[in-house]
Amino acid sequence: MNSTIFEYFRAASLLVLTPHCFDNYLLDLNFLDVPCFKSSLSKVLGVGIILGSSTVKVPQILKIYQNQSGKGINIISVILDLSAITIYMAYSFVKGFPFSAWGDATFLAIQTLIVGVLVLYYEGKRSQSTGFLVGYIVICYVMMSGMTSIDTLWSLQTFNILLVVFGKLTQGWTNYQNGHTGQLSAITLGMLFAGSLARIFTSTQETGDKVVILTYIASTLANFVLVVQMWWYWNVDIKEKSE
């Protein structure tokens, strides 16, 4: 193989393989290395989750936009969800974790922010919608620019477990009270559940951070509740319930 082509191939492979595993698999032809298999699987899942996360909430955003309504979406739940995502993103960034371990949080934060802005906008709260957007950008800068200590971020990440559960269950309670899931998207909920479940494994492999792992376990369980509600209320007529 041409050396230039090989170097390009190696560089591309290192997105999902460590240098050791690359040599193990492709030079030594040793395919029975269990640690390498776990590491490679974690990287592949991480990249897959990041790619999936880039559009995971697009169905939700489109549903709100097409209906010109955020009916059934609890804005407090959205804010809590965004807070949890942002804390994890800032904590991982400052800790220097591999991007494959937390990169999806970036895309989730952007899309959750858009959901929040749209919900407020279609409720007629346009000034609050703009303030929400600007305030979030400022908070991100403060948390990720070095102005916030790693100890503070660690404390926030510990609190994140409760934040994640409370945020998801707040939406679950709203669904229960309404007797339907409103403008929530089944595709988005399903992808979020699958992503958080996979993140338990990738976080174990790539960060070893117990707080992060526990956060994803809690997120998976809370997302499962919303998925079950989506299934339970699947055939409910929203207009009929509202009347």
TrEMBL record:
Q: What is the protein's given name?
A: Mannose-P-dolichol utilization defect 1 protein homolog
Membership in a protein family? Belongs to the MPDU1 (TC 2.A.43.3) family.
Q: Example GO biological process term?
A: oligosaccharide biosynthetic process
Entries under InterPro entries matching the protein? MannP-dilichol_defect-1, PQ-loop_rpt
Q: Which UniProt keywords apply?
A: Membrane, Repeat, Transmembrane, Transmembrane helix, Transport
Q: Where found, per UniProt?
A: Membrane
> How does the UniProt record describe the way this protein sits in the membrane?
Multi-pass membrane protein
